[in-house]
């Protein structure tokens, strides 16, 4: 007995989906090792992004290669990726809008590369991101304000061992789920705004507080962000005056004193002139009355 038309259509759809999944699963880059929904290309010295990656891949490991560029078009077709490891490569070009279609990505490792900056467009499409590793990028000198504004699910962020001098508090202020923030071994400029990063995130545990050390200004040099040293940080940040500060205050005080002295002298001169003119006016009036 032939199947009803509707049932037949369902079976055709299922069969086509099965064939499509099988074809997609059979393809695998020759340099890589493929397992169920996972592709591992670790240590193959690849200089270009591998081709023929199955479209249903969930985990892609490209660590320890020589990749200097990630093609956004190829990544666009891997929209089901939830895990991407690109550590230990030579990525250094602009990554803005590289991960446009990877809205399911949860784990991204870009450590040990040559990244230079992070902007709003770098990770703005990764709304599901939970773990982001950017450590050991010696050329990374800037993370722009609000770079992680769309990554509200982020729990682990590591920017250790880069060349960061400053990170705006607002950059991580709106990350309600952030629990681990790695900041160690950067040449931090420790002004009062930098201290607010710790005040506003008392619930955030730093991955390596021992290695968070101030590089500048001079009076903060060498100070670590350990809990027992934060009181000293408060003192130096909000109370401490350097020689330049004392010189500035001295100049301001001298300027105020000089201005006050000149003003008092002018007022005295004006008072003397006024008294002189008043007295002269009285004398002239008396002379006129005498003549009359």
From TrEMBL:
InterPro entries: KCNMA1_auxiliary, Leu-rich_rpt, Leu-rich_rpt_typical-subtyp, LRR_dom_sf, LRRNT. Keywords: Cell membrane, Disulfide bond, Ion channel, Ion transport, Leucine-rich repeat, Membrane, Repeat, Signal, Transmembrane, Transmembrane helix, Transport. Residues 27-59 form the LRRNT domain. Residues 1-24 form the signal peptide. It is a single-pass membrane protein. SUPFAM superfamilies: L domain-like (SSF52058). One of its GO terms (cellular component) is voltage-gated potassium channel complex. Pfam families: LRR_8. Coiled coil: none annotated. It is found in: Cell membrane. The chain crosses the membrane at residues 246-277. One of its GO terms (molecular function) is potassium channel activator activity. It comes from the Eukaryota. This is LRRNT domain-containing protein. The lineage of its organism: Eukaryota, Metazoa, Chordata, Craniata, Vertebrata.
């Amino acid at each position: 007995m032939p199947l009803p038309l509707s049932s037949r259509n369902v079976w055709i759809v299922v069969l086509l989906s099965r064939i499509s999944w099988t074809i997609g699963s059979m393809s695998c880059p020759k340099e890589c090792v493929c397992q169920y929904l996972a592709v591992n290309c670790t240590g193959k010295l690849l200089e270009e992004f591998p081709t023929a990656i199955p479209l249903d891949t969930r985990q892609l490991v490209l660590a320890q290669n020589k990749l200097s560029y990630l093609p956004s078009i190829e990544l666009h077709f891997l929209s089901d990726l939830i895990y991407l490891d690109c550590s230990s490569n030579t990525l250094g070009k602009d990554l803005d809008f590289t991960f446009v279609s990877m809205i399911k990505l949860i784990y991204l490792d870009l450590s040990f590369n040559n990244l230079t900056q992070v902007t709003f467009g770098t990770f703005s499409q990764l709304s599901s991101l939970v773990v982001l590793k950017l450590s050991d990028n010696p050329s990374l000198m800037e993370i722009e304000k609000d770079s992680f504004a769309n990554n509200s699910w982020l729990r682990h962020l590591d920017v250790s061992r880069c060349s960061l001098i400053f990170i705006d508090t607002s950059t991580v202020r709106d990350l309600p789920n952030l629990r681990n923030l790695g900041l160690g071994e950067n040449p931090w400029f420790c002004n009062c705004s930098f201290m607010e990063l710790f005040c506003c995130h008392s619930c955030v545990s730093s991955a390596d507080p021992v290695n968070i050390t101030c590089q500048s200004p001079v009076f903060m040099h060498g100070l670590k962000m350990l809990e027992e040293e934060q009181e000293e940080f408060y003192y130096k940040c909000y109370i401490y005056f350097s020689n330049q500060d004392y010189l500035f205050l001295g100049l301001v005080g001298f300027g105020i004193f000089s201005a006050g002295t000149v003003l008092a002298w002018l007022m005295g001169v004006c008072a003397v002139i006024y008294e002189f003119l008043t007295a002269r006016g009285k004398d002239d009036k008396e002379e006129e009355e005498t003549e009359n």
